[in-house]
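S.,

As promised, the 1-deoxynojirimycin run. Input:
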Amino acid sequence: MSGDDRWWREGVCYQIYPRSFADADGDGVGDLRGIIDRLDHLAWLGVRGVWLNPVTPSPNADWGYDVADYCDVDPTLGSLADLDALVAAAAGRGIRVLLDLVPNHTSDAHPWFRAARSSRDDPHRDFYVWADPAPDGGPPNNWVSTFGGPAWTFDEATGQWYLHNFLDRQPDLNWWNPAVADAFDEILRFWFDRGVAGFRIDVAHMIVKDRHLRDNPPVLAGDPFPLQVRGQRPVFNERLPEVHDVHRRWRRLADTYTPPRVLVGETFCEDVRDVVPFYGRGDELHLAFNIPFALCPFEPGALRAVIDETEARLPPGCVPVWTASNHDLSRFPTRWCDGDEATTRVALMLLLTLRGCVFLYYGDEIGLCDTDVPRERLLDPVGVRFHPYAGRDPQRTPMPWHDGPGAGFTRAGVEPWLPFGSLERNVAVQRHDPDSILSLTRDLIGLRDALGDLRTGLHRSLEAPPGVLAYRRGEDVLVALNLGDEPATLPGPWHGSVRIGTRRSRDEERVAGPLALEPAEGVVVVLDRPA
Ligand code: NOJ
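Predicted complex:
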């Protein structure tokens, strides 16, 4: 392994939702200059890479995931020059920048789609998936959109339906058309040439759809809840074998660069077994998000099962990627920990002591919880449509840098695009408190940097009493996490010393014998080498 790839093979990366991280121009919306201003925070934390949610121009029907131009920056967020400046400023701190690539669909405002819907004969018509009405005049097949309702919208002017697996304002691209693949090669090169380290690839598992547009079969009893809601199994519009051809093509292209650019897939699958194929034989995606881990209940048996299965199934040399929160999922301090600080600290210890690559979501490092966003402030189309289900705004609210006016996010008196949540957990108050969640996060990242066993050592789960998740990392490291609300003891004997405890009073404590844990407590122990 060369030093070039350690940042993503072993390091901690950080997801930034640009509209909510830091607002330099004081319009209430975060921007690229704001991110530059806050890079020192990330360098101090020990982060090696950042992934920015889409920064490309967008009418924001789905907040950037409806792209109107793949090769520019949305003026609300800045300019191409700002992006270049961000890449350079991050590089100066040893931080790589990953952008978000959205290849499944464009915005309906993209020039390709405008041209495509202008006439059936337009050269861009075949960039999208068009089909004649079914015999009854309805949609061409039974596919439903991930965001609810039919996955098809009728275009009156040209008399055909177009496919959209998300909003009707997000028409799906036709990946059977070689011109689409060629156009994306140019898009990848455009950003790689600017020094971007790689891409997080939106819905990487679903960009190719059945050529014959066959109906999906109905769900079966026992299928996971999201499928039950849709009423069908996405056999013909997700995880088609041809998706892998596209990934291999991009991998070949990424590998022509020095250093090779990195591909991280949003492989939103319910089961680890379905995530593994996206690594290919080391010739597809470098990293594939482990969504089953993020969606797992915070319960030792369930977590152990996902972790063990991931470790067992990933081919040698492939790197697991762990994340607990993102812009689509409720934040883990809320979802896993119900806001409880001690449990949040245990969850961070888990995340930061697993083998491979870790992605923190902005705010994870201070234990930021979801925000209750009032109905009149909802902006996520999913939340608006399915209210009272809260949608995704609660996990996208501005970063609290301090608890004064503007929260360090924007100018005092400016109303941010989404409301602030609680400012109680903020960066400033935690930064100089050695006992804070932020200090714990930083110290765990530092320990990971310092201990080869924590970065790359084999993961081996241990038998543990109820409530406890325990594992060895490599030869020398023991991690023991009590997720329960009763004291527990991991039978030993163990000999070593606690390097970091979620209760910091245990740091440096000697361990000789069984390892006792309070409720919602975790420790990383470095074991003595046998004499
Ligand atoms: C997955 C993204 O993470 C999500 O935010 C978006 O709405 C859909 N893909 C559609 O692009």
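The chain has a mean pLDDT of 97. The longest helix spans residues 178-193.

- D.
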